[in-house]
What we know:
The complex is a heterodimer of chains A (148) and B (386).
Chain A (H helix, E strand, L loop, with lengths): L1 H5 L3 E5 L3 E2 L2 E4 L4 H10 L7 E9 L4 E9 L4 E9 L5 E3 L8 H12 L2 E3 L27 E2 L2 E2 L1
Parallel strand pairs in A: 3-6, 7-8
Antiparallel strand pairs in A: 1-3, 4-5, 5-6, 9-10
Chain B lengths: L12 E5 L11 E7 L2 E8 L17 H5 L8 H5 L6 H16 L5 H29 L4 H21 L8 E2 L2 E2 L7 H24 L2 H7 L7 H6 L4 H5 L7 H4 L25 H25 L18 E9 L2 E9 L5 E7 L1 H5 L3 H4 L5 H11 L3 H5 L1
Helix pairs in contact in B: 3-4, 4-5, 4-11, 4-14, 5-6, 6-11, 11-14
Amino acid sequence: MLKARFGDAVVELQSEGFSPAFVVVAPAAVRDVARFLADDPALSFDSLMSLSGVDYKDRLAVAYHLHSLAHRHAVGLKAFLPTESPELPTVDDVWPAANFHEREAFDLFGIVFTGSKDLRRILLPEDWEGHPLRKDYKYPDFYHGIKV
Amino acid sequence: MTARPEALPTQEMTINMGPQHPSTHGVLRVILTTDGEVVTRAVPDIGYLHRALPDIGYLHRALEKIGERVTYAQFMPFTDRLDYLAAMNCNCAWAWAVEKLAKIEVPERAEFLRVIVCELNRISSHLIAFGSYTADMGAFTPFLYAIRERERVNDLFEMICGNRLTYNYARIGGVSGDAPPGFLEKTKEFLDYFEPKIDEYNNLISYNKIFVHRLANVAVVPAAEAVAYGLTGPNLRGSGVSFDLRKDEPYSVYPKFDFKVCVGTGERGTLGDCFDRYMVRINEMRESVKIVRQALAMIPEGPVLAKVPRVFKPPVGEVYVRTECPRGETGIYAISDGSTNAFRLKIRTGSFVTMNIFEKITKGLMIADIVAVIGSFDIILPEIDR
């Protein structure tokens, strides 16, 4: 159904070993697909349960876990991003719940959500260097001259 | 902003507020912008605990990073620190997630014991929510009552797992040990003692005129907004949405029990106000008593721990497991790359998501109402900072 509507933007379906199954979409299409999943009456995924950044070493990913209160079904949405300049559109206007999750993914993975109203670090200090949940993150010895 | 006479110049003021609630110890700062006594903006500043360093030995730091560095079984004690007022629930959430990932069968007696401790922990967690909330509102006695009752739950937990705070009872594949002799009887004694107390609390404080006035119609979260912002648990149900993972996406042995999902009814004000969220927790304690009673009556004999190797490798895959913790949905997103450690672990917690709506609903409230709002959400900081 998504394939018919969005064509090549829907890359693949990850279902074997995945619970719930993931629909992999092109990063640029995330917001449109999200809007469709939320608004289509047969799907109406009205709640974003979780949004997580993932570092697959050769590339990054953002995994969205969606749930529908009306139909009681769930699905995953995933977008793969290049490690160098990870960018994808925000979904905080589709699900306001996305805001904190996106800030967290930005903080810990350095993923930029374009169009976000309020993309700031959330857990770490504003001037912290690096993104700690990246697999290649090097632990700093000092922060503002304080040994950490 | 309201129009005011020229002769009376006022200016906005920025106030740093908090910590004030016992579970916001030292780490939740709310930056208030006030116009007189009215709050024009309240921005929560979180994240003082999280330093993303693999320093083991501090209370709670960078749990997700640690989760990638230790084996699945070794991560169990860290989940206690995720929500120290409901460690049993967090333990079990982790166990259920890993068991699903690694396809481990759990003996039924273990699942019953898990449900018993989880529901007891829900009672003791809601007791703290109730007690500290009334203390926030200026009534001290109910706080002492709540602590008194919680001590009895702690006695039970000490009996079954040896701890009074960071309980650690669940294991991957079951629980650490069978209930010691006398535990099930003592649990029943506690329920008999505790159940009438709920009415006592209601008589003492719940319908007290001042208390109701502080809570009713304050910080109303309409149902649609609660869903859109991803609220879960009592905060969602307070808005009148009947959704409880124990009932609607049943896991473990919950389908065997008869209980009802408590929702807000707009009893003393508008649906979804602070009073509704408060009342949902009071009513949920009664339902938990009901569940534990049934579990005690139905618990089967048998082993309590499946044969699981100390270090095991789940097949490659990803799971997202949702469980109903006292502060809402605790979702564990775990990715296995087939090694002994999780490749990626994301812990989605109720308190973290709840704070997202905080700024929106506190606009235009009085300063004293901010205290009521934080208490009504029953947040806990290690869940936010993880």
